[in-house]
Design brief:
The complex is a heterodimer of chains A (about 300) and B (about 230). Chain A has helices at about 40-50, 105-110, 140, 165-170, 175-180, 190-205, 250-280, 285-295, and strands spanning about 10, 30-35, 75-85, 90-100, 120, 125-130, 150, 155-160, 185-190, 210-215, 225-230. Chain A is of the alpha+beta class. In chain B, helix 1 packs antiparallel against helix 2 (about 55-80) and helix 5 runs antiparallel to helix 7 (about 160-190). The chains are: A alpha+beta (about 300), B mainly alpha (about 230). Chains A and B meet through helix 3, helix 7 and helix 8 of A and helix 1, helix 2, helix 7, helix 9 and helix 10 of B. Chain B: Its main location: membrane.
């Protein structure tokens, strides 16, 4: 969708310029408490309903995940993992609501070559502005969480908007609204961290001494956070990255290479021009022509 | 024609056939279009160049197809010219005296065949970079991933895709730098452009810049004695 919140842009893809700074909105966050999640998928349904998306009927892959992956029409997805806890011998059923993490340092935005196709609002939400998307898929390469999906129909990238349209008018995201156990809560980032810490303290008192809030510093923190009972090993939650950060390859490509490369090209062109100015053209002299004619022997 | 008439009409030497010229200009056109469309998606300040191709989406769509044209077209140039671009001992001498080259003091340089060391470096540099650009380009040609997967069974992992975009950008910068050298040399050394436009150069040009080549050409044209 188009962005109707142009006053609140904090970052804009492929744009070098100052973002509007006249006002600042409250930094928001969604907190996903996996220890409270019952895997009912109401959040998935609410997401489809609010955003008016319908996933095609797929195939059963033998697990509870349905559909089995994020897609242009599935912006959030419950991922189920059966994990043998080696310390207790218990089988734990881990359920994680997957979707865009709304990074403070968004790899998708950094990689995007189309001006304004990806924006970050000052409230922290990272949004795709489809009308500017050119379908290159660079956001997929930039993302450390494997979130954006490119549509086969229109080649545009899709992902969770954190219901930027709802948040803009003071509503919580649809998934949060639908969650029956308050495993999903939404509010200011500050409040969500504080609430998360309370939850962590509670979990620790129940024996989960490795419980913690997942707000990875490698991407500057996120605006979707998790409360994990095993925060020391995020990957057991269906491959949640341990220490996500934008790939150094992407950083190099969109950092040094982009600027030094262009500078180098400009410098080479200027050098050529100056060489001409200093040395003048390299001309063939009459003597050269004479010598050539002589060599050709006048008789050919 | 005699030597004394060079002023009116210098002797000419044929340098490129019509086919070679067409081949060259197809390559040149595709390389320039690739540079423009690639730079458009490389740096935000150059995104306006997508306007030349009908917008961002069309630029994204058309760029790799032009790349395939370049690959095929350059392969033609490669087959035509690779032998003449093989490195020789004298090329090291030429390269060692690059100051004399830049100052235009060609009398200090060894006699050069059809291509000098600089031209050979342009040739091999482009040859290598175009292969690198092709391979890395396929790695980021997202709309062809299904084709790669279904026909060749190739799935490109995300880290290889990331490596591919970086390598593609670096190789493209290298190719553009080489292109600048190539074009500048052609403009600086007067009488060069006509080699690719009309296929011939003046004898004086050949004498000054590619004397050994001129000797070979003249030698080849001298009637041989009947084989008896």
């Amino acid at each position: 969708m188009a962005t109707l919140q142009s006053l609140d842009l904090q970052r804009r893809s492929a744009t070098s310029g100052t973002p509007p700074a006249a006002r600042k909105t409250l930094e928001v966050a969604k907190l996903i408490d996996v220890s409270k999640c019952i895997g009912c998928k109401a959040c998935q349904v609410a997401c489809m309903e609010w955003n008016d998306l319908r996933e095609e009927v797929g195939e059963v892959t033998g697990v509870y995940d349905n559909p089995h992956d994020l897609s242009p029409a599935t912006w959030t997805l419950m991922r189920f993992t059966e994990w043998d806890n080696p310390d207790t011998g218990n089988l734990e059923w881990l359920i994680r609501k997957d979707g865009c993490m709304h990074c403070s340092d968004p790899g998708c935005l950094k990689a995007c070559p189309a001006p304004g196709a990806i924006v970050q609002y000052s409230n922290g939400i990272v949004d795709f502005v489809s009308e500017n998307c050119i379908g290159c898929g660079y956001c997929v390469k930039g993302c450390p969480f494997n979130i954006p999906r490119i549509s086969k129909a229109d080649n545009k990238a899709y992902k969770c908007t954190l219901c930027s349209d709802r948040v803009a008018v003071g509503q919580a995201p649809a998934c949060v609204k639908a969650c029956p156990t308050q495993a999903l809560v939404f509010g200011s980032k500050e409040d969500m961290i504080a609430h998360g810490e309370e939850r962590v303290a509670d979990l620790k008192s129940r024996g989960y001494d490795k419980a913690g809030v997942y707000d990875p510093a490698g991407v500057g923190g996120t605006h979707v956070m998790y409360v994990l009972h095993h925060a020391d090993k995020p990957p057991i939650y269906a491959g949640l990255p341990l220490a996500p950060k934008i790939s150094p390859l992407v950083e190099m490509w969109k950092g040094l290479t982009k600027n030094v490369g262009l500078l180098g090209i400009g410098f080479a062109a200027v050098f050529g021009f100056m060489h001409y100015v200093v040395n003048g053209p390299n001309r063939v002299s009459d003597e050269d022509e004479q010598a050539a004619a002589k060599l050709k022997g006048d008789g050919t | 024609m005699t030597g004394s008439h060079y002023r009116d009409e210098p002797t000419t030497v044929s340098r490129y056939s019509a086919a070679a010229r067409v081949n060259h200009w197809v390559t040149a056109a595709s390389l320039i279009l690739l540079a423009l469309s690639g730079l458009a998606l490389f740096h935000p300040s150059l995104f306006f160049l997508t306007g030349l191709f009908g917008g961002g989406e069309y630029t994204r769509i058309i760029h790799p197809w032009i790349g395939l044209v370049l690959l095929v077209s350059f392969a033609g140039l490669f087959l035509r010219f690779w032998r003449l671009n093989l490195w020789e001992r004298t090329d090291n001498v030429w390269l060692g005296r690059v100051r004399a080259v830049l100052a235009g003091r060609e009398e200090e340089l060894p006699e050069v065949g059809k291509y000098n060391a600089g031209q050979k470096l342009v040739f091999w540099g482009m040859s290598i970079l175009i292969i690198v650009l092709f391979v890395s380009g396929v790695g980021i040609w997202r709309s062809q991933y299904p084709f790669l997967r279904e026909t060749l069974g190739i799935v490109i992992p995300i880290d290889q895709q990331r490596l591919a975009v970086l390598v593609h950008a670096l190789a493209a910068i290298g190719a553009i730098l080489i292109w600048i050298v190539h074009v500048y040399a052609a403009l600086w050394v007067k009488g060069t452009v006509r080699a690719m436009m009309r296929g011939s150069v003046t004898g004086g040009w050949a004498w000054r810049h590619h004397r050994r080549w001129l000797r070979e050409e003249v030698g080849a044209r001298t009637p041989r004695r009947p084989a008896e």
